[in-house]
Amino acid sequence: MSRKRQHSHRLVRPENKNYLRRVRLRSRTVPVVWSITTPKDYSAPDIASASVVDSDNRTLRVEYAVPQRRTPEKIFRELLQKWRKETWFVSSMKKRVSHPAYLNIIGMGPAGIPLILQELQHTPDHWFWALQAITRKDPAPPNATFDQMRDAWLAWGKHNGYLR
User: Fold this and answer.
1) How many CA atoms lie within 13 A of 39 on its CB side?
2) Helix-, strand-, coil-residue percentages of the chain, each rounded to 5
3) Contact at 8 Å (CB) between 140 and 128?
4) Which among 71, 102, 131, 161 is least buried, having the fewest CB atoms inside 10 angstroms?
5) For residue 100, what pLDDT band results from cuts at 50, 70 and 90?
6) Claim: this prediction has a pTM higher than 0.85
7) Domain spans, the chain
């Protein structure tokens, strides 16, 4: 009666797209070839696969899903939705702009500027504090109304290439 040998395989997640990694299998070092395929449209999760050659020269192939990459726009939309959901009823602007989601949008830095300006263009809201914090500029005149501040920021965005 033959018994199947069980091998313990320890796979290490790759950092680069393709590379060769060595792992220890029963006191022998064998090569492990990693390859990751990335879909162009990000509609499906990335698939990572590993080929392991064991001590009996059998090739084992393992495939698993890698979480999708989150684009800055997707991150912004998630934070925006959370911010609006949790602060729509708050009348204090200080409390609204000190919300963690709003602060995370500010933390996106320059990558968030075009997203904020597009949102300001389509759905006006209080994005002026975030824009001032990121850009360290204030194109609006002193004592400006909401509409004047909005127009000034949109003009600034077009002038600096953030908007078309």
Assistant:
1) 12
2) 40, 20, 40
3) yes
4) 161
5) very high
6) no
7) 18-66, 72-159
